[in-house]
Amino acid sequence: MKTISIVIPAFNEEGNLRKIRDEIDLVFKNLTDYHYEIIFVNDGSRDNSQSTLELLGAEFAEVKFLEFSRNFGHQHAVKAGLDFAQGNAVISMDADLQHPPQLIPQLIHYWEQGYDLVYTLREYNQSASYFKKKTSDVFYKILVSLSDVEIEKGSSDFRLMDASVVEVVRKADETDLFLRGLSKWVGFKQHAVSYTAGDRFAGESKYSLKKMIKFAFTGITAFSVKPLYVASYLGFFFSFLGLLYIPYVIYAFITKTEISGWASLIMSIVFFGGVQLIILGILGIYIGKMFVQLKNRPNYIIKSKNF
Ligand code: UDP
Ligand code: MG
After folding, report:
1. Domains, in order of start, for the chain
2. pTM
3. How far apart are alpha carbons 109 and 89 in whole angstroms?
4. Which end of the chain has fewer CB within 10 Å, C or N?
5. Please, are residues 191 and 112 in contact by the beta-carbon 8 Å criterion?
6. Pair 84, 92: CB distance under 8 Å
7. pLDDT tens string 158-213
8. Is the CB of 227 under 6 A from ligand 1?
């Protein structure tokens, strides 16, 4: 009998944990050919998630948990789950029921058809805020134009991976983890399934605007050095413009019409100052990443687990 591992990161999700366990259990009641295990990864929750997980773990043999020593972020929580998953296939999904467990049979179906990785594409339902839809659209547009892996609009961390893919992903010891990109990057035979995102069951979104912007930067810079090229192109472009300017300067010198133009001077100083700072910033981001990665600290710390 095959086992399916379900990895669920949870950060302050006390109101959702029992519900999602029940729904998954219901789904597997109809999938009698499969065993399942749920690995909840408590990513430093400050509510009662941990005690809820301990109760669930005592109640149901399928429920396992990993407790982080603090909040390490969604991506590392999923990674930890993958690191410990035992199944022939691993499904990762959110704790808030926005990733419908009812889709699990379909994911498994395509896996059985021979796909190594079955990912999902989200279509927003009516009730999602205009702001969230728009930011998500912009996020993918920027991501696709600036990175080297193609990441489809609406992709999330709701996917099934065959054990062979999981094994590869486990080896990626990246501080700056972006699973959406990584799971495309690995290749293998992939298939997409669409679904409509439901509302959060309980609690609120952990992705503030600030976190989303940071996530967007991570997505771009973890997967591509294109921004560095953009910086160089800008450099070339403006140097060329500068060259064009030289004849005029000489002309103005010879004809003694040189310049009352304080405004244009200040403008270009401010403008080029800005461009240089942006480029320094881009360099800084990459150097910062190297710094953090070089220290080679663990990407998460497990404080307790029940298996
Ligand atoms: N999450 C996490 N650590 C964090 C933030 C979020 O483990 O630092 C989990 C959260 O509990 C949920 C999933 O990641 O299971 C997605 O988070 P959320 O639903 O808040 O994101 P949204 O759906 O609003 O994009
Ligand atoms: Mg959510």
Report:
1. 2-224+298-305 (3.90.550.10)
2. 0.77
3. 12
4. N
5. no
6. no
7. 999 999 999 999 998 888 888 988 888 888 999 999 888 777 777 777 777 777 77
8. no
